[in-house]
Amino acid sequence: HDEDTVDEESKRTQLDDVRENPEGQRLTSDHGVKISDTDNSLKAGERGPTIMEDFHFREKMTQFDHESIPERVVHARGTGAHGYFQPYDDPDLGEYEDISELTKASLFQDSDQKTPVFVRFSTVVGSRGSADTVRDVRGFATKFYTEEGNWDLVGNNIPIFFIQDAMEFPDLVHAIKPEPDDGIPQASAAHDTFWDFASLKPEITHMVMWVLSGRALPRAYRMMQGFGVHTFRLINEAGDSVFVKFHWTPKYGTNQLVWDETQKLAGKNPDFNRQDLYNVIEAGYEPEWELGVQIVEEDEADRFDFDLLDPTKIIPETEVPVRPIGKMVLNETPDNFFAEVEQVAFHPGNVVPGIDFSNDPLLQGRLFSYQDTQLNRFNSANWDEIPINRPIAERHNNQRAGFMRQEINQGKVSYKPNSIGDDHPKETPAAEGGYEHHAEKVDGHKIRNRSDSFQDHFTQARLFWNSMSEPEKENIIDAAHFELGKVDRMEIRERMVYDLFNNVDHEFARRVADGIGVNPPEEPGDELPDHDEADPSLSILNRT
Ligand code: HEM
């Protein structure tokens, strides 16, 4: 490719410009004045009070006092690494000859091209200082610094989600976070509010099955699958669109910890997963994933017994195979955790030409939420100028000013139309690489609703349960006993068994009921028992 093309090193070269190395340097103030003594404050007399004019003391302390920024409202705890993405030379695309038949995105076109990436892995519920090995979903967010701008694939290690509509997200997170009165528990689902919410929300059933499984206890970040979860669109040069699901498959295989290990590790080394990623890369290993796609033609979208726009559903691989299209390699640890891992800001709305959204109502809401929360996290709209977030592609526009603006924009003109700014940034037609949203035909009434096609909450949960081996089933049941055994209110335990699990699998529901003091359902379709029949010996005193 020509010299302007982005390559693996281009993001690192850009970051090198702002890397500061203290080796062999003189200590200075923030304004470049050499400092003679950084241990003793300026005093009036041998044993006197500190003097206000001590600019070095004030600067050093002020900077320290302002070191912390808000943690992410979810996914607060994580770690990250640099690497690259490279498309395969001759991917097996089934009926399609070439990936360019499906998408015009530049990062997929040339198998010699390595696009730089930064990946952040995270837990979801716990705060920044919580333990790594808790039962939780893991975030798997990738920023591709492409020559056409940044593309963020902000995924998780489980291919589905808890809820179907973004409107429910604040409720989900309020239910799953530590309880508001006592702030307990810090990072686990084992409490009343989460299971109360779950037991009243049948759409959560499929996700709960995954969360009770070993998927929620990954052995290492390099041993996790990743999923875009939502259905997205790929768009080719002609403007044609297909639906797509994205899959990351780890070369190290998908591995989990067992419950006992997670409990001990949370005490002995709460950084277990973060340290593993750092150590293996520092030791010269290069964790690798294969990127795969499931492709569905637009006119095929109706052939499934679930809705492609429903994020609580997978597309079974027996129906649509996953086609590998490239690999991602992580080969460099960050230099500075705060500057890179803490300040990286992903946003599902960051797409490049060739990739577009579907109408999945969860995805649609995410397109608003990330930028909004980042305004809170960075206290400025200029977080996209921070080195880790800055694209390699050139940026020119009329956006101006704001807290901590880094760019020095030149000239009189920051508006359009204008007659005095000859070299003013010009728009680019779609045919020449300008982003254009897919011209999907939309027609309907303005309504708040849940489509009928989103109403089957149990078929895929059952599919998941039936795909488990007996030891895996036992692990899920043990997890349900532990989690629900910590729920004080008997009616919540009962609703989980009767309203959710008994609709997944009768035997499963009975086995869960047995371990948590709930009368096992007699029949698959049993109604909730009369509440008085529940075992009164189960109370807060039984919590362990
Ligand atoms: C982080 C909102 C669903 C994956 C976040 C953050 C917010 C948020 C506010 C914090 C971002 C920041 O401070 O930079 C939402 C909303 C959702 C939703 C409103 C649903 C309506 C999902 C889903 C996935 C996901 C379905 C996976 C496909 C992530 C990841 C992060 C994150 C990986 C951490 C990014 C990082 O490492 O910085 N989400 N989220 N979220 N979300 Fe979501």
TrEMBL record:
Domain Catalase core, chain residue ranges per copy: 28-424
Cofactor: heme
BP GO annotations: hydrogen peroxide catabolic process; response to oxidative stress
Catalytic activity: 2 H2O2 = O2 + 2 H2O
Molecular function in Gene Ontology: catalase activity; heme binding; metal ion binding
Family as reported in the entry's similarity comment: Belongs to the catalase family.
UniProt protein name: Catalase
Species of origin: Natronosalvus hydrolyticus
Full protein segment contained here: 46 to 589 of 760
Enzyme superclass (EC): oxidoreductase
